[in-house]
Amino acid sequence: MAGDRETLSARTATVRESVLESARDIRRHRLLGLVVNVTPSALWLGVFFVVPLAVMFVYSFGERGAFGAVDLGPAALGLQQYATFFVPDGATLLEATWYTIAYVLEWFVPGDTTLAATEPTPYVQLTVRSINYGILTTLICFLMGYPIAYYLAQHVSERRRNLMLALIVLPYWASYLVRVYAIQLLLSKNGLIPSLMVTLRLADTRPQLLYTDASVIVGLVYIWLPFMVLPVYSSIENLDFELHEAAMDLGADRLRAFTRVTLPLSMPGVVAGSVLVFIPSVGAFVIPELLGGPSTVTIGKFIADQFGAAGNWPLGAAASFVLMVIMLASIGLYQRYAGGDML
């Protein structure tokens, strides 16, 4: 019996080794190895990303039917949802383009100057507002995140550095919604910050900080600031600071050496962080919903409503692809000007 068991064990080990060796041979094979390695991830992406995206793309050319159904009949297919999104009633495509350009320029013109006779569609206005939120959030995250990353990379010991990096990432151990609700409690009428402003005599009464543009920006910066700090830190940490010292030896002061040497060399991290902050800020809908008011509705909130209460899936799908084009354009700019090595 003992001999039979040893024989069976030896045969089992031989078969197992043979199977493992065959698997290794397959993985080493140029074509079969590629198929084996790529198939699981390709299947996952195909089922849960490509197929739903294709369905959404088809829906964007349909019309809303009765009771929220999507009409994809031959008579319903067309670009009407994109026309609804971009072109005001009674306007041509060229006029709609000018209305959009004028609306964007009016954000930068002081006073109540009106450049066009008609405003663009409400959907374009939501998109412009969302882009403005994204740009402002990215700028603030850069102004706050770059000094933090520079300090961590150059002026903190390795032991303390690891602790501070852990503290930066620590909020992500909590739920996204929990952190947004925490900001809501801080900014509410009876919250800590309005009460502190009255105590410090910065205001006579508790100011209304919640449900404003400022509260939305505060929430976006709080949530996405680590996504700026970490890429910039990684970029600065890998810099050769002997170049900075060489610039100072050649007569440059600290500021000039920083602006001419350190900052340009760290730009891949800055651009990567900007993309990682800008994209989710433009598409955010939870933060504007919880921290903003009626005047802070974003394109992300609009898309969520179209697939929810409004039940207009074709218009929501068209708006989704418009937002996707904006995000792909930002990634394309990153690939063009920063090489895409850190994304």
Description:
- The protein has 343 residues and is mainly alpha-helical.
- The protein has two domains: 2-59, no CATH class; 80-89 and 121-338, MetI-like fold, CATH 1.10.3720.
- It is built from 15 helices and two strands.
- The chain has helices at residues 2-28, 30-59, 80-86, 93-106, 122-155, 158-169, 176-187, 192-199, 213-237, 242-249, 254-265, 267-282, 286-291, 299-307, 313-338; strands at 63-64, 70-71.
- The protein has a two-stranded antiparallel sheet with strand order 1-2.
- The longest helix has 34 residues, at 122-155.
Key phrases:
2 domains; single chain; mainly alpha; MetI-like fold; 343 residues; 2 strands
Task: Write the topology of this structure.
Blueprint: H1 2-28, H2 30-59, E1 63-64, E2 70-71, H3 80-86, H4 93-106, H5 122-155, H6 158-169, H7 176-187, H8 192-199, H9 213-237, H10 242-249, H11 254-265, H12 267-282, H13 286-291, H14 299-307, H15 313-338
Antiparallel strand pairs: 1-2
Number of domains: 2
Which spans have pLDDT < 50 for at least 5 consecutive residues? Answer: none
Beta-strand content bin: under 5%
Average pLDDT for all residues: 84
Can you give the helix content as a percent range?
over 70%
Helix count? Answer: 15
CATH homologous superfamily designation of the largest domain: MetI-like
CATH class of the largest domain: Mainly Alpha
| CATH architecture classification name of the largest domain | Orthogonal Bundle
Cα-atom Rg, whole angstroms?
A: 27 Å
The tally of beta strands, per DSSP, is: 2
Provide the spatial order of strands within the biggest beta sheet: 1-2
CATH topology of the largest domain: MetI-like fold
Give the class from helix and strand content and strand pairing. mainly alpha
Largest sheet report? 2 strands, antiparallel
Q: Quaternary arrangement of the chains shown?
A: single chain
Please tell me what the overall shape is. Answer: globular
Give helix and strand order, one letter per element, not per position.
Answer: HHEEHHHHHHHHHHHHH
- Alpha-carbon distance between the two ends: 61 Å
